[in-house]
Each structure stands twice: as structure tokens, then as C-alpha cells.
Description:
about 15% strand, four-stranded antiparallel sheet, alpha+beta, 4 helices, single chain
Amino acid sequence: MDNLTLKIEYLLKVLKKSWSLNSSSKWTMNNPAKGQCGVTALVVNDIYGGEIFKTPTPEGWHFYNRINNKYFDLTESQFTSKIIYLNMPSSREEAFLDTNGIQYNALKQIVYSYLTDDSLPCRPSPSVKKGNL
């Protein structure tokens, strides 16, 4: 397993601890990833860069990331059936339409509080706070 995949797996653990009603009004204890795709894609993009992609689902657009030419969908667990990924390029602006500033800032703040400097690549700079997972 490559270093990026290990970092993404660690980030997924952080996200699972971080998702809440504060980051999506669709969140439930039984399905914590529900409604978190746009806000999660934005925070992942803040941390690792890359691009944001989307694919249609019966519930609407679903957002995820491509980093170093590898696709990562950290909220796929919200779906009960397999997703057919069309890998359509999207943008931060479009993903933001799936969330709002309060939810985005809530998720970003708690995720950054969990991350340690050595778990990240060179970005996002020293604004990441030290924390424990």
C-alpha cells in the first residue's frame, strides 16, 4: 500500500470521528457518512489538493476526490448499493453547493484538530493543530 493510501485511510478514521449533525443535517448514528460528500470532498481537497469529481446517484450529485491520479471516495459508505462512478470533473464551488459555510467550517475545524503534522504532506501549512486520534 502506498504512502498516500495510508494517509487517506488515516484521514478516513479522523472523518468518522468528526462527522456529525454539525457537518451535515442528514447525519445519523447509523449512517454517519450520510450527506457528508460535498463537505468532505472540500476538506480533503484543502488537505491533499488534487481535484474534486462528481457522479450522479438517485439522491443527486455525489462528490469525491482525485489525488495524484487516484480516486478516493471517503463517503461511499453512506450508500447501500454500489455506485457507478462516471468521474465527472467538478469544482470547489459546485461541491460547496452541497453544504454551507457553517458545516464546512465545523468539519474542517474538528478534522484539523485531530491531525498531527507528520500525518500530512507539506500542506496545509502550520495552521493544522496537533491532536490525538
